[in-house]
Inverse folding.
């Protein structure tokens, strides 16, 4: 889960990392009032999760409260990366002398957290040449050592009081990374303003799998109302742009289902993995939610391992009987209790393919025909 | 020894009294796996499917020879249970648990590395050598004994491919699940090496996914070290950029992790590329016809 900038900065502050004076606002009046209170030039920053915010006009400078109000009006009416801007962060404008990059990621190759730093801050780290990036691998048993951070500041050409501050910030950032179960923590730019080092912008990604020990976390990334409700069922869902709703089990098998559709010329409308052990009620609820997104065709691909085909079949029959499935259904069933599953479907006038290729081809054909078909095509 | 296991492998089940643990213990025993002991804290003295349950792994090891452990312990307790297994001298740990926090996975793998323990997973269906040993949750009737090794990040996809192969009369020497990532114990490269050195394996099927760089590393390893034919598929070709599909590791970031790059690298290394699970069986039949 990615955090909004203001959430990330609040977390940095909790770990003693200096951040600019700021306030979160959601209206023009609040923006004007904040600029007035601060009594200095401010910057208004749209709070969105997508990158490239600056280029999209999501950061506006204001010399006076009146201009802050005008900027807030524009920003709050805008969309960035397909998301409506609903929240702004109003910050005192910094007088920046130097901009650095400081980040911690998990390096999957070495299977360790790695501190990355560069004297070229304020730009995407992916665009910085490798030779200009300092890296230090962290032994999770011991944590980050100050000598490693002394090497970091030396490499970046930082000396004196600022060097000491940067080292302390890096060590605090790793403490946050560790305790808050972060997957990525980035301060960019880390700004030198006079003799103060400040986190001018920050990005944090936290590990959703660690929610059991962070019960107060918000959920910033649910995919709309359908996504939030499917997430509540504990299932994995990603909306896409195509025509065929996909319900399958197992992440790899779900991806293979999407690929098979694409292979036959149809586009998947979503990724929905009902997992290895989802029960009938959960799968049924997920199917009903999926049907409500108005697909042209629904493709169900279940390979029963722990999931039983008869349970799946009964779930589909129940959903069909309740009248919520308007789009034609294409079903593929294989695995545990497959024969029982087929019997249940057939008794309800439904059929299932035995092979994924056949089912995907049929779903693609139905999209081509405008979805005007019943589901007895097996 | 086929790949990591054989007919005589003695297995301990961690979390044996839980819903998954008890069910999979029964399925493994039914298949013929030597499940000799189980562990659940506080349940010592019980029996599950006739298997004695202990409070601690070291207690089980006093009474049994144990070659491998398979863990069904829920994610919040998986780190503790895994460290116990490693500290107790378990040399092969199959970690089926999904959704373990990444930082816990890092700790488990670092500790295992220092102790010389091999970790399969996390989030793996396990390891299945048809006709020899089932150390995992694979539906056994989709597979049959044979001479083609499968290495897969995904459980259900390996079942799909196993079914296609089995229906075409192509059996498997071992089916190894790695888990969905983004951090893995054993990697594709390590399993490729095991299959290359296994006299009971003639060809290797590699089931990869978008995201990360493991397939590229496997490709360069194949080019330099693998003499047996490799058939590969990369799933997630229809995926958009920047969205993680179910497996945390299955994400395209910028131009990193794309299916195209992985397919190109594997082709360059001499692997055969399939686009659907059924094509894999077709390609293996062609290879067999040629040899």
């Amino acid at each position: 889960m990615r955090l909004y900038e203001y959430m990330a900065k609040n977390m940095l502050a909790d770990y003693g990392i200096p951040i600019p004076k700021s306030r979160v606002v959601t209206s023009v009046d609040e923006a004007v009032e904040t600029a007035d209170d601060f009594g200095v030039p401010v910057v208004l920053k749209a709070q969105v999760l997508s990158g490239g915010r600056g280029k999209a006009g999501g950061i506006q400078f204001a010399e006076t409260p009146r201009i802050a109000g005008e900027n807030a009006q524009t920003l709050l009416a805008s969309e960035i990366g397909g998301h409506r801007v609903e929240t702004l962060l109003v910050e005192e404008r910094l007088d920046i002398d130097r901009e650095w990059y400081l980040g911690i990621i998990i390096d999957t190759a070495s299977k360790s957290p790695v501190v990355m730093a560069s004297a070229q801050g304020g730009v995407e780290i992916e665009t910085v040449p490798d030779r200009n990036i300092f890296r230090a691998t962290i032994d999770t048993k011991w944590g980050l050592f100050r000598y490693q951070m002394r090497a970091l500041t030396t490499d970046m050409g930082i000396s004196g009081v600022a060097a000491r501050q940067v080292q302390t910030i890096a060590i605090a950032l790793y403490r946050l990374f560790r305790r808050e179960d972060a997957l990525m923590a980035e301060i960019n730019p880390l700004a030198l303003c006079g003799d103060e080092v400040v986190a001018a912008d920050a990005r944090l990604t936290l590990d959703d799998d660690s929610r059991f020990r962070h019960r107060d976390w918000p959920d910033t990334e649910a995919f709309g109302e359908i996504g939030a409700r499917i997430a509540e069922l504990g299932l994995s869902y990603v909306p896409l742009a195509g025509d065929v709703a996909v319900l399958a089990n197992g992440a790899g098998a779900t991806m293979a289902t999407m690929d098979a559709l694409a292979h036959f010329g149809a586009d998947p409308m979503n990724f929905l993995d009902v997992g290895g052990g989802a029960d009938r009620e959960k799968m049924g609820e997920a199917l009903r939610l999926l049907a409500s997104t108005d697909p042209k065709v629904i493709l169900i691909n279940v390979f029963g391992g722990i999931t039983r085909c008869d349970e799946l079949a009964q779930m589909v029959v129940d959903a069909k009987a309740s009248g919520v499935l308007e789009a034609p259904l294409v079903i593929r069933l294989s695995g545990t209790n497959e024969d029982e599953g087929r019997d249940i479907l057939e008794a309800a006038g439904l059929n299932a393919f035995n092979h994924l290729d056949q089912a995907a081809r049929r779903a693609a054909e139905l999209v081509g025909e405008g979805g005007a078909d019943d589901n007895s095509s097996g | 020894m086929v790949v990591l296991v054989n007919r005589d492998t003695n297995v301990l089940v961690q979390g044996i009294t839980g819903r998954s643990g008890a069910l999979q213990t029964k399925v493994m025993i039914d298949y013929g796996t030597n499940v000799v002991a189980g562990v659940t804290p506080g349940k010592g003295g019980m029996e599950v499917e006739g298997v004695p349950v202990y409070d601690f792994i070291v207690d089980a090891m006093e009474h049994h020879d144990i070659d491998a452990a398979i863990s069904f312990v829920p994610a919040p307790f998986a780190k503790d249970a895994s460290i116990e297994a490693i500290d107790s001298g378990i040399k092969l740990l199959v970690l089926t648990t999904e959704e373990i926090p990444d930082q816990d996975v890092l700790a488990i793998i670092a500790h295992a590395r220092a102790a010389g323990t091999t970790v399969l997973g996390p989030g793996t269906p396990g390891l299945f050598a048809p006709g020899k040993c089932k150390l995992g949750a694979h539906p056994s009737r989709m597979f049959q004994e044979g001479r083609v090794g499968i290495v897969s990040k995904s459980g259900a996809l390996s079942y799909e491919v196993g079914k296609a192969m089995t229906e075409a009369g192509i059996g498997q020497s071992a089916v190894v699940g790695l888990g969905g990532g983004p951090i893995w114990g054993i990697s594709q490269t390590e399993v490729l090496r095991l299959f290359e050195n296994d006299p009971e394996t003639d060809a290797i099927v590699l089931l990869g996914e978008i995201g990360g760089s493991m397939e590229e590393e496997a490709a360069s390893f194949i080019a330099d070290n693998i003499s047996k034919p490799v058939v590969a598929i990369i799933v997630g070709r229809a995926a958009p950029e920047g969205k993680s599909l179910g497996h945390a590791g299955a994400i395209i970031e910028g131009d990193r992790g794309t299916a195209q790059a992985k397919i190109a690298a594997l082709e360059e290394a001499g692997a055969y590329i399939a686009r659907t699970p059924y094509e894999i069986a077709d390609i293996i039949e062609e290879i067999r016809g040629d040899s």
User: Anything to note?
Assistant: Chain A has three domains: 21-92, 98-213, 224-368. Chain A touches chain B through 53 residues (CB under 8 Å). The domain at 98-213 of chain A is CATH 3.30.470.20 (D-amino Acid Aminotransferase; Chain A, domain 1). The first helix of chain A runs from residue 5 to 14.
